[in-house]
Amino acid sequence: MPRLEQVGFGYDLSRPVLSGFSLDLPEAGTVCLLGPSGCGKTTLLRLLAGLAVPQSGRIVGLDGRPAAVVFQEDRLLPWETAWQNAVTRPDDGQRERARDWLVRLGLGESLHRRPGELSGGMKRRVAMARALASDAELLLLDEPFTGLDETAWRQAADLLSGATDENRLTVLVTHLPEQAAALGAAVVRLDGPPLRRLS
Fold first, then answer.
1. Are the CB atoms for 156 and 13 separated by under 8 Å?
2. How, if at all, do strands 169-174 and 186-191 pair?
3. Residues ≥6 apart with Cβ < 8 Å to 150
4. Model's pTM, two decimal places?
5. In this structure, are residues 165 and 34 in contact, taking their beta carbons and an 8 Å threshold?
6. pLDDT tens per residue, range 91-106
7. How far is Cα 20 from Cα 6, in angstroms, rounded to an integer?
8. Which helix (H) or strand (E) holds 7?
9. Nearest CA to 86 among 45, 165, 77?
10. What is residue 164's predicted lDDT score, i.e. its pLDDT?
11. 63: pLDDT confidence band, cut at 50, 70 and 90?
12. Which helix (H) or strand (E) holds 155?
């Protein structure tokens, strides 16, 4: 079972973001990390992704597990189309999965548009399609519905809820309780800094 054991981390040693933080995660399914902006949720996601290393404590159960991350920034290549941006591996199966997810997320008419021709919400959905189309066993989503209107984010949440895989663990960060509720996921309520779990 993936878990964080007494994890400590800070960008400034005088102000830790996490201090002795522990959390058990399931092997698969969806977990929503719910807490106010600035409490440390994004840092926790970076630690789970291996993009930051605990300064104390440890993370177990995730070694070698392929991960896909949807960052708060879309991180799309401006010279590639939406479809090209959603493809992470040049094989036909992955290309078709990427196309399918773009269509399901309402971007069927925009497959061949470049990021400069897309709205902020559309770029967000391209980033989501890229992650969902991957074979990753760990899916980390940092505020994935930012920039989407209510109808669009609820549709995306429905798709995400239906995309649960028995071999995939999805961890999603939000500060909006209504988004956590729409996902029907296990909710971990957080506060901070330093990051702490609320009972």
1. no
2. unpaired
3. none
4. 0.91
5. no
6. 888 899 999 999 999 9
7. 4
8. strand 3-9
9. 77
10. 67
11. confident
12. helix 150-162
C-alpha–C-alpha distance, residues 6 and 141, integer Å: 23
Instruction: Note the Cα 82 to chain centre separation in Å.
Output: 19
Sign, CA torsion 148/149/153/156: negative
Closest listed residue to residue 2, CA positions, set 69, 46, 51, 58: 58
Examine the pLDDT at 30 and tell me if it is beyond 80: yes
Let me know: does 3 contact 59? Beta carbons within 8 Å: yes
Contacts of residue 112, defined as CB under 8 A and 6 or more positions apart, other chains included, come to 81, 82, 83
Cα–Cα distance, 16 to 30 (Å, whole number): 27
Cα distance between residue 164 and residue 22, in whole Å: 25
Confidence of residue 82 (pLDDT cuts 50, 70, 90): very high
Average pLDDT over residues 54-69: 91
Q: Which tokens in the block code for residue 98?
A: 């990427």
